[in-house]
Amino acid sequence: MRRFLQSLELFEENERKKLAIFTALTFSQKLSGLPPETVLQPLLKDNLVAKGLVLSFITDFFKEYLVDNSLDDLISLLKRGKMEDNLLIFFPSAKRSAESFSEHFTKEGLVPLVEYNEKKIFEVKLKEMKSALTTQIADDTDISEVIETVKQRVKDAKLPDIEVVRILWDVIMDAVQWSGKNQQQNANAALRQVKAWAQLLNTFCTSGKLELELLYKVQIQCYEDAKLMKLFPEIVRSLYEQDVLAEDTILLWFRKGTNPKGRQTFVKALEPFVKWLEEAEEEE
């Protein structure tokens, strides 16, 4: 098998196609006990990759394998072959880009694979941004510099605004220095953190929709983290006072919020603050 695969250039195109189909069938029909890496790794000879022979072969392999198997099965096979994280390695070096990947496999009718790869790239970019922000916030970097970092990464990676808001809240709260079971110290630490990084949230919560998304994020975290359960109204009030959340957003969540996690408890806890908002509105 290895010799066949490392000698692709000796075969005619139709013979390479037959070999790709046969290779796919050995895994699809479980005709051999070969570990995937013993078949896939030998393909990666520089001269075969450079000539596009590997890309052509692996495309035929994918198409045949997916006749009787799901995309999840293919990804599992690639994982076992230690290929799942770097599918661009099958492409000639000049074509190793996300755009080339999407263009090639879309043309070949493998749209689910394209969608999987785009999701994978998206997740990596989110992870990289979160890591960079975690470091900056831990180092107490100047907030203007952190804002520029976020703007640049959003521009480079084309990250959706909603995902940015979610990441910002996660990173800010992950950096809080919690104090064991001392509820008051935890409350003070959380509220200090919200106040310290409010400008960062404010910069990217640029619409009512994004403010509502942030409020849902706060709701979910307070529901899932016992030490934050009682802090929900105080966090919401702090975000309001720092001009991150508008009154209309808070009232919309209070009256028509759709996320059920802890909703009844949080609505009840927020009632005094909402009543104050409504009274202030009436006075105005």
From TrEMBL:
Record SMART domains = eIF5C (SM00515)
InterPro entries under this entry?
ARM-type_fold (IPR016024), eIF5-mimic_regulator (IPR051245), HEAT_5MP1_2 (IPR057397), W2_5MP1/2 (IPR043510), W2_domain (IPR003307)
Name the residues that span the membrane.
none
Where does the record place the W2 domain?
119-284
The UniProt entry, under Pfam families, shows: HEAT_5MP1_2, W2
Under the cellular component aspect of Gene Ontology, which terms does the record hold? cytoplasm; membrane
PANTHER family according to UniProt: BASIC LEUCINE ZIPPER AND W2 DOMAIN-CONTAINING PROTEIN, PROTEIN KRASAVIETZ
Similarity section: Belongs to the BZW family.
Q: What is this protein called?
A: W2 domain-containing protein
